[in-house]
Design brief:
85 residues; two-stranded antiparallel sheet; DUF982; alpha+beta; globular; 2 strands; 3 helices; Ribosomal 50S subunit-associated protein YjgA (DUF615 family)
């Protein structure tokens, strides 16, 4: 399983853990699994699945990034304007 880089990083705020720049499907999946404030909901599950699929080569990294941005918006951790590249 090879990591898949995003076209541009996503900046999120994880409360006491601070800011985090997420640049790839692997980083996004690790963040979702280990640091996410609410591990439930449709957006969370979709982002987790799409990041795994991108790592397996079944999904373009851009789709995984888009799902991650939407999940970050829903969780209230996205910093800045959402860019769904």
């Amino acid at each position: 399983m090879n990591d898949k880089s995003f076209s541009s990083p996503v900046l999120i705020s994880l409360g006491a853990m601070g800011l985090r720049l997420v640049s790839s499907a692997w980083e996004a999946l690790e963040c979702l699994k280990n640091q996410w404030p609410q591990q439930d909901g449709v957006e969370y599950r979709r982002a987790t699945r799409m990041c795994r699929d991108a790592l397996e080569g079944w999904m373009p990294p851009a789709k995984a990034r888009q799902a991650f941005v939407i999940a970050a918006q829903r969780a209230g951790v996205l910093i800045g304007k959402p860019t769904l590249k």
